[in-house]
Write a structure and sequence with these properties.
The structure holds two protein chains of two kinds. By secondary structure, chain A is mainly beta. Chain A has no helices and ten strands. The chains are: A mainly beta, B mainly beta.
Chain lengths: 116, 112
């Protein structure tokens, strides 16, 4: 079946501009996660959505970052007034919630963001 | 202290050998552990998960968990050049459904 999809695959933007990154999770997955991976670094958790509950925003690095999830499916990560240090690959993952065995997260292909 | 630690490598092994990848973690309450493989320029893909102490085998892969010593390892038997990638160790904390905490990964190189 279809996996997690993300768009765009690549985004180049000028410093100070706003960007929106989109994630479409696997159908039926109620949990959605955003991570980012900077060059040579591990994956850094950003935000987590579970069903209709309030999102866990504890990983967002600054108030320039926000995310929403409409209708419990598609999510958009917005970065306002982008800075060069925001350059990274932004990865979205989804998982089924319910039983312990179904907590595995499946990743999308990522969006490579370059801020010039 | 970092929550999940891995040796960055590179770990180099000849084709056909056993590759051993190790990971330690700081939170004794962690319940579940995952190994992801990431090829250069690609997104991580799940290869193994383990929740209970002991070994879990899946094909050429064996995950080992020792909660008392707070380490988890991944063994790859009969290593192939196609196994060359970065292997990410991740854990989930006490609460189910929460985000994963990743190590920085170990780069494995299998030479033919």
């Amino acid at each position: 079946g279809a996996g997690v999809s993300q768009s765009p695959s690549n985004k180049v933007t000028e410093k100070g501009k706003d960007v929106e990154l989109r994630c479409d999770p696997i159908s039926g997955h109620t949990a959605l996660y955003w991570y980012r991976q900077s060059l040579g670094q591990g994956l850094e958790f950003l935000i987590y959505f579970q069903g209709n509950s309030a999102p866990d925003k504890s990983g967002l690095p600054s108030d320039r970052f926000s995310a929403e999830r409409t209708g419990g499916s598609v999510s958009t990560l917005t970065i306002q007034r982008t800075q060069q240090e925001d350059s990274a690959v932004y990865l979205c993952a989804s998982s089924i919630s319910g039983t312990l065995s179904s907590y595995e997260q499946y990743f999308g292909p990522g969006t490579r963001l370059t801020v010039t | 202290q970092k929550e999940v630690e891995q040796n960055s490598g590179p770990l180099s092994v000849p084709e056909g050998a056993i590759a051993s990848l190790n990971c330690t973690y700081s939170d004794r309450g962690s319940q579940s552990f995952f190994w992801y493989r990431q090829y250069s320029g690609k997104s991580p893909e799940l290869i193994m998960f383990i929740y209970s102490n002991g070994d879990k085998e899946d094909g050429r892969f064996t995950a080992q968990l020792n909660k008392a010593s707070q380490y988890v390892s991944l063994l790859i038997r009969d290593s192939q050049p196609s196994d060359s990638a970065t292997y990410l160790c991740a854990m989930r904390g006490r609460q189910a459904g929460t985000a994963l905490i990743f190590g920085k990964g170990t780069t494995l190189s299998v030479s033919s």
